[in-house]
Amino acid sequence: MKIVNVVGARPNFMKIAPLMRAYKACPRIAPLLVHTGQHYDERMSDLFFRQLGIPEPDVNLEVGSGSHAGQTAAIMRAFEPLLLAHRPDAVLVVGDVNSTLACGLVAVKLGVRLVHVEAGLRSFDRTMPEEINRLVTDSVSDLLFCTEPSGVENLRREGVAPEKIFLVGNVMIDTLLAHRAKAEASRILDDLGIAPGRYAVLTLHRPANVDDPVRWGRILDALQVIQRDLPIIFPVHPRTRKNLGGPSAGRAAAMKNLRLIDPAGYLDFLKLMSSARLVLTDSGGIQEETTVLGVPCLTLRDSTERPITAEVGSNRVVGTDTEKILAAYREVMDGRGRRPQIPPLWDGHAAERIVAVLAERL
Ligand code: UD1
Q1: How far apart are CA 343 and CA 334, in angstroms?
Q2: What predicted TM-score, i.e. pTM, was given to this entire model?
């Protein structure tokens, strides 16, 4: 049974790693790994393959960056001949990036069964490109694997047949738990001269935040106050780096304790998160990772597609209003808030459950 597995962008790599490992226990499945090349920088891609022990991709489509339509179309054009040549039994896509959508559409149009890992998440904000990618991919998938109960409920409400939906837990957390001990040995805190519990970590890359000068300005106003008390370590995504070259460059540079660093590798970033007093982010995956680490997370967005992280985990969805960010920051620093719990099935074995279902159903 041949399964083509697709990765494209940074958050896909930690999701595919445990699946590639779990396939080894199932000799009936012959996995092929395809990298679309959506992310291509050493620090956005290759480093993750090495640190997570992901096998070299069998094929790299090398599509690179572009507009949404341009990038999606380039992936589709490159992926179609590959599927025609290999004729797999299924295509497996993860997450919600343009590579997920593009390869999913190509698969179903060629009559190849589509498997979506991390299905059913909904922010209910259709201005987010990822929300469109999630809606379209789920609507054409044959097997849908969910990380949390909200995903199952969303899919049922949208009319997906219950026998296609599986609540299996979270492959990103499989990777976190498998690499926690190794990450402990990272020297990143020493290299940066910071002490555990005495700094915050910031990540920002969503177009709605970093491409909008008004929202970006409000976030910078909050950061200006926070960094006076707590140094902020800010690994900068390439998209954000471009923006920092613009009119806001001077403001960010003038904040003595806002420390811009290059995108961190997986192990360094895991160490940075797990020892932080607080994480501020607009990422999806980091809301989940901080939940498992029990580190307070302020999500600088108006919505989350991962509600369980705020219901039982350490996440607070605070938006981008300066005062709201600062109020939540003060609550965290005062130690207010409940003790976070780990969502059901986030136990490090999601990939094994997925492979067991694939072996039975395909
Ligand atoms: C993509 C995903 C987003 C995910 C994020 C994680 C979509 C629609 N978005 O956003 O859901 O959270 O990845 O990082 O798929 N660039 C580089 N080097 C790289 C990759 C990108 O310099 O290796 C620069 C390019 O200038 C590019 C820009 O970053 O134009 C944005 O890259 P793109 O892949 O379009 O989207 P991301 O913002 O990374």
Answers
A1: 25
A2: 0.97
